[in-house]
Write a structure and sequence with these properties.
Layout: E1 7-11, H1 18-26, E2 31-33, E3 50-51, E4 54-55, H2 56-61, H3 63-73, E5 77-82, H4 91-96, E6 100-106, H5 109-122, H6 142-165, E7 171-174, H7 181-191, H8 212-215, H9 219-228, E8 252-253, E9 259-261, H10 269-280, H11 293-301, E10 307-312, H12 315-328, H13 336-344, H14 361-379, H15 394-402, E11 409-412, H16 416-426, H17 448-451, H18 454-463, H19 465-471
Helix pairs in contact: 14-18
Length: 477
C-alpha cells in the first residue's frame, strides 16, 4: 500500500481513453480500478451486479459506503473512474480527501466529441478485434458541441479550484500520454506502488485513428463553428473584484405583506423602504430587518408563498450616489479616511471639507469624473483602497446574495412603478400603492443631470463593464 494514498480516482469523460488507462492500471500488481463505480445507470460496468458485494440499490442508498469499501476492502490500492455526470454526492468527499489520489485524464474536446458521436452511431464503445471495427461518418452539431465543451470546462474548473484551495495536486494525463510506457510507469511511481509495467495493454485498440476532418460529413461547417468559439475567452470581461458574501442583516421585510427587499448599496433604498411602509400603512420602524441567516430562514418558513426582490440602478447614477453620500459628504455614513486617501494619494480634486458655497458645478463634474477613473482601477484590484459595497459592481453583489438566497425578481429602478405593485399583488395585496421616485440625496450638491455628458457615461462604462454587459444598460442620457 502507498504511504501517500489509500485509493485513487480517475477524473475523465467518455471517449478520452479511460478504458485503456484503466486496463493499464489493472495490469499493475496491487492496483484495482473498479470501472465507473458511481455511474448512475450501472455499477462499475454495464453488466456488473455489484462492487465488493455492494449492489447498485445499496450504493444508491449510501454512496459513501461504497467509497469506504473501495478504500478498505480492495486488495492493494483500489480506485475507479468518475465522469462529470456521475453521482454528485461523492464528488466533494473525494475532492476533500487528501488520501485519495486524483488522476485527471483529458483529450482534445473536438476529438472526444466526434468519437462519442461515432460510438453512438455504431454502438461500438470498445474495440478489441480490429476486424470487427465499425466505421461511420457523423454530422458535427455546433450547438451540441458548445454545450458539450461547456460541461467539460465547468467540471475541469471545479476540479482545479478544489485542488487549489485544499493545497492538493493531481497527476494529469493527456490522451496521447496513454501510449507512453514511461508515463504509465511514472503514474505508478506517483501513486506510490512498487509495481511497474513492462509493456502497455494490447487488448484495446484505437477505434478511429483517422484525422477528425475525415470522421465528419460536414467538415467545413465544423471548421466554421469552431472559429466562432472564443477558445481563449478573449471577449470575457475580466473580474478582479473580491467575492462578496450575502449582506443578510441589511435585508428588509414588509410589516405584514410577505415581501422581502434585498438592497444593493447606493440603490433606491429609501424609496423602496417608503413603499414597503405604504403597503401596510406603517412607519419605517415597523419594517423587519437586522436578519441573521437563521432568523431569515424562520421568516421564510413562517410565510409560505413569500417573494423577494432587489432593485438595480444605472451604474452611472449609482456611482454618483456613492460619490456624493460616501466620498464628497462629510456627514454620517461618509468614508472620511477613504476621502482623505483619495485626495492625497489618488489626486482627486475634492474640497478639504464639506462642499461650500464656492463649490461650483464644474468642480463637481471634475471631481466625479476623477472618482469614476478611480473606480475603474479600484474594481480591477489596482488600488490599495477596499472595494466597498457602495460601489462594487451590482453583478458581484448579486453573486454574493446567491451564496444564501437569490431574489425572485430583479427590478430596474426606472421600472419600480410597474413591477413592485405587481409583485405585491402576487402575494395577496389587493391595492398596492405605486412607489415614489427616489428623492435627491441631501449630500449631493448638484444633480447628476446637471453635469451629465457622454464622457462621464464612457468613464462609467469603462469602470462597470460587467454591469453594462450583464444587465444591458444603455446610456443614461
Amino acid at each position: 500500500m502507498s504511504d501517500r494514498f489509500d485509493s485513487f480516482v480517475v477524473f475523465a469523460e467518455m471517449r478520452t481513453g479511460s478504458n485503456f488507462l484503466e486496463a493499464n492500471l489493472n495490469a499493475l500488481d496491487g492496483v484495482t480500478c473498479h470501472g465507473e463505480a458511481f455511474n448512475p445507470h450501472f455499477i462499475g460496468y454495464p453488466n456488473a451486479s455489484d462492487i465488493l458485494g455492494i449492489t447498485q440499490p445499496e450504493r444508491e442508498a449510501d454512496p459513501v459506503r461504497l467509497l469506504q469499501a473501495i478504500r478498505q476492502e480492495t486488495p492493494g490500492m483500489g480506485g475507479f473512474r468518475f465522469f462529470h455526470d456521475h453521482d454528485p454526492r461523492v464528488l466533494q468527499p473525494l475532492l476533500d480527501d487528501e488520501r485519495v489520489a486524483k488522476i485527471v485524464l483529458t483529450r482534445n474536446p473536438v476529438e472526444s466529441y466526434v468519437s462519442w458521436k461515432i460510438a453512438q452511431t455504431t454502438g461500438q464503445w470498445k474495440l478489441t478485434n480490429v476486424s470487427k471495427r465499425k466505421d461511420a461518418q457523423v454530422t458535427f452539431d455546433g450547438a451540441e458541441f458548445e454545450t458539450h465543451l461547456a460541461r467539460l470546462q465547468d467540471f475541469q474548473l471545479r476540479l482545479m479550484t478544489a485542488l487549489q484551495v485544499s493545497g492538493q495536486t493531481a497527476f494529469y494525463v493527456g490522451y496521447e500520454d496513454l501510449q507512453s510506457l514511461e508515463v504509465m510507469n511514472g503514474l505508478a511511481k506517483w501513486l506510490g506502488v512498487p509495481s511497474r509495467l513492462e509493456s502497455l495493454d494490447g487488448k484495446l485498440k484505437r477505434q478511429n485513428p483517422e484525422p477528425v476532418v475525415e470522421k465528419v460529413a460536414n467538415a467545413g461547417e465544423m471548421e466554421r463553428a469552431l472559429t466562432r468559439l472564443d477558445r481563449f475567452n478573449l471577449s470575457r470581461t475580466p473580474n478582479f473584484e473580491p467575492r462578496r458574501g450575502p449582506v443578510v442583516p441589511g435585508y428588509v421585510a414588509a410589516a405584514e405583506t410577505p415581501l422581502l427587499y434585498m438592497p444593493i448599496h447606493s440603490g433606491p433604498t429609501r424609496a423602496v423602504r417608503r413603499w414597503l411602509c405604504a403597503l401596510d400603512l406603517v412607519e419605517d420602524e415597523a419594517l423587519t430587518g437586522d436578519f441573521s441567516q437563521k432568523s431569515l430562514r424562520q421568516w421564510k418558513r413562517a410565510r409560505p408563498g413569500h417573494r423577494s426582490f432587489t432593485v438595480i440602478r444605472h451604474p452611472l447614477a449609482r456611482a454618483h450616489e456613492a460619490f456624493c453620500s460616501r466620498i464628497l459628504s462629510t456627514g454620517p455614513g461618509s468614508f472620511g479616511r477613504i476621502r482623505k486617501t483619495l485626495r492625497r494619494a489618488n489626486g482627486l480634486p475634492l474640497p478639504e471639507g464639506a462642499p461650500g458655497a464656492d463649490y461650483s458645478l464644474a468642480q463637481h463634474r471634475d471631481a466625479f469624473a476623477a472618482f469614476l477613473v478611480f473606480l475603474k482601477a479600484n474594481l480591477a484590484g489596482q488600488t490599495a483602497v477596499r472595494v466597498d459595497g457602495h460601489w462594487a459592481s451590482q453583478a458581484q453583489c448579486l453573486q454574493g446574495m446567491a451564496e444564501f438566497t437569490l431574489p425572485d425578481m430583479i427590478v430596474r429602478e426606472e421600472e419600480m412603478a410597474i413591477y413592485l405593485p405587481a409583485l405585491a399583488m402576487q402575494v395577496g395585496h389587493a391595492a398596492p400603492p405605486e412607489p415614489e421616485a427616489e428623492s435627491q440625496q441631501d449630500a449631493a450638491p448638484y444633480a447628476l443631470a446637471d453635469i451629465y455628458d457622454a464622457s462621464l457615461e464612457e468613464l462609467a462604462r469603462e469602470a462597470y463593464q460587467r454591469d453594462y454587459l450583464m444587465f444591458g444598460f444603455g446610456d443614461l442620457g
